[in-house]
């Protein structure tokens, strides 16, 4: 019997070694899974791109927290050192309706370059190029109004009269220019006067000849 036990002992040892080797990969696999559960998941590309969700503060027009905006906000600086962000669609609607092209907080004049950047933002983020075009049109019209207001009253009246004539004669037909007509009439009248004066001088010369 002792001899039989000695013969079976290597067999049992070999079985235990094989069993240990068979379970070793499984244990390593379980350890790897535990480490994966403990490690935080890497941020997705979509979450990483929504940088404004980390912003503090509010939209100065709607008072909506910037971090809750669905789309990327538009940056409009109040001065050279600070940053403020707005819902681009709301900002464009406010500027078009009010025709007040000044920064809502600092009253800094908004330039056409600012409006161009806002228009590009609307086309890229909001997919609304039409709104951007309307913003640029409103800005140009407002700047033209301010330019006319700075002119003397007589110049303003002349421009208004010209626009009224264009509306009467039709948009496609150029209206007569009253200033040009008056200048032409004056030139014709002056020519006739000069000719009469020349004739008079001729009579005078004949008279001088007669005295001689």
From TrEMBL:
Biased composition (Basic and acidic residues): 196-212
Chain residue ranges for the region called Disordered: 22-49, 172-212
Descriptive protein name: Uncharacterized protein
């Amino acid at each position: 019997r002792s001899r039989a036990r000695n013969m079976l002992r290597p067999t049992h040892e070999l079985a235990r070694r094989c069993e240990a080797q068979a379970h070793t990969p499984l244990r390593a696999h379980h350890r790897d899974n535990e480490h994966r559960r403990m490690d935080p998941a890497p941020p997705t590309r979509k979450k990483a791109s929504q940088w404004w969700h980390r912003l503090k503060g509010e939209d100065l027009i709607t008072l909506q927290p910037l971090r809750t905006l669905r789309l990327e906000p538009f940056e409009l600086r109040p001065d050279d050192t600070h940053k403020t962000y707005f819902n681009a669609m709301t900002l464009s609607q406010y500027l078009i309706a009010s025709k007040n092209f000044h920064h809502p907080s600092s009253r800094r004049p908004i330039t056409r370059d600012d409006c161009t950047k806002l228009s590009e933002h609307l086309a890229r983020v909001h997919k609304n190029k039409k709104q951007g075009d309307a913003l640029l049109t409103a800005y140009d019209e407002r700047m033209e109004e301010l330019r006319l207001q700075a002119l003397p009253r007589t110049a303003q009246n002349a421009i208004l009269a010209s626009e009224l004539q264009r509306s009467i004669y039709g948009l496609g037909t150029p209206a007569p220019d009253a200033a040009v007509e008056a200048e032409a009439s004056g030139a014709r009248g002056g020519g006739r006067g000069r000719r009469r004066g020349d004739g008079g001088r001729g009579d005078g010369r004949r008279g001088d000849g007669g005295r001689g």
